[in-house]
Write a structure and sequence with these properties.
This protein is of the alpha+beta class and about 325 residues long. The chain has two domains: about 1-255, Beta Polymerase, domain 2 (2-Layer Sandwich); about 270-315, no CATH class. Helix content is about 60%, strand content about 15%. It contains nine helices and seven strands, in the order E-E-E-H-H-H-E-E-E-E-H-H-H-H-H-H. A seven-stranded mixed sheet has the order 2-1-3-7-6-5-4. The longest helix is centred in the C-terminal third of the chain and has 56 residues, at about 215-270. The protein is rod-shaped. The chain starts with a strand and ends with a helix.
């Protein structure tokens, strides 16, 4: 899907483009989502160099994610997108030119829809491609901060749920799954923050001369926000590790209690088993076999031995 964002009378006009259309002359943002082979061929007319493909969007080397060529400045950055409880990172390619911004991605990203709605309602002022890029990164940093708050709240709920005395094993199993999910989300948030930090620093370093003072201030403000958010991700990792160890400790304690019960039961019934085994032997000369009260005496011995062992365990405080 190809969408052109045109600026007319200080307003943004959003126009979906087909393969038969040409790029309008007043376009400042060309957004391409999940392009087909035909749409990539259409994009070739607006690139001197090669159009980025899916492999380019997932490269992690700095030379592949940040560079300049005849088409202008290229930045590839991860953008978070929530899908149910999970969060995934989607690579987005930015091609910044003097009068045009081209964005290319293989998946839909909610933040792009958010900025699109802002433009429709004129909630943000856009007058250049650089302003659009700044708005997208601002929305990303704000969203990452919101996600961090959600992770913290989720961990607080898990903490309250698992540290109660009346918590059962099923609840703790659910808590472990929640902890694993929050660890994954926090890791992706941290990756996005670090990637955004690299992208913004590269952008400031290479566009300082041609960048308006307002945009420089906004980018530097975002970098300060990222610097303040990164320690929170480290704190959350520590909290996640603590909760995981605490839950595993509670589970191990419950398992140890069960094993202790089986061990005590085996020890309590060991003397009766010994007595029963002795009188279960088939030797010819066993005087007790001819006693009239041999059977009740043997049963009594087994009961007394089991009770004696149980009382000893009670006195020792092992039960």
């Amino acid at each position: 899907m190809i969408t052109a964002y045109q600026i007319q009378n200080n307003r943004i006009i959003i126009t979906p483009l087909s393969l038969q259309d040409s790029l309008p002359g007043d376009t400042i943002w060309l957004d391409v989502v999940e392009p087909s082979e035909a749409e990539r061929a259409w994009l070739d007319d607006y690139y001197v160099e090669e159009v980025p493909d899916s492999e380019d969007l997932n490269e992690i080397e700095a030379s592949s994610r940040f560079y300049q060529d005849k088409d202008g400045l290229h930045i590839t950055s991860f953008f978070p997108h929530r899908s149910g409880k999970e969060v995934r990172n989607t690579g987005v390619s930015f091609n910044l030119r003097p009068h045009l911004l081209i964005t290319l991605r293989d998946d839909e990203v909610g933040l792009f829809r958010l900025v699109r709605n802002y433009l429709k309602r004129q909630q943000i002022e856009i007058n250049s491609p650089m302003a659009i890029l700044t708005a997208l990164f601002t929305a990303k940093v704000d969203y990452l901060a919101d996600l961090l708050e959600e992770v913290y709240e989720s961990l607080e709920m898990v903490s309250e749920m698992t540290l109660r005395e009346d918590t059962n094993d099923e609840t703790r199993d659910t808590a472990l799954k929640d902890i694993a999910l929050q660890e994954d989300v926090n890791g992706k948030i941290r990756l996005c923050l670090l990637d955004s930090q690299r992208s913004l620093r590269y952008l400031i370093r290479n566009r300082r001369i041609r960048m308006a003072d307002q945009h420089q201030l906004e980018l530097k403000e975002m970098l300060r926000d990222i610097d303040s958010l990164l320690p929170h991700t480290a704190f959350l990792f520590d909290k996640i590790n603590f909760l995981q160890e605490a839950v595993m400790g509670f589970i191990n304690l419950e398992q140890n209690k069960i094993i202790k019960i089986f061990s005590v039961m085996a020890t309590v019934f060991m003397p009766p088993t010994l007595i029963a085994s002795s009188y279960g032997m088939n030797f010819a000369h066993m005087p007790e076999l001819t006693w009239d009260f041999g059977y009740p005496i043997a049963i009594g011995l087994m009961i007394m031995s089991a009770l004696s062992t149980f009382c000893i365990f009670k006195l020792k405080g092992w039960l």
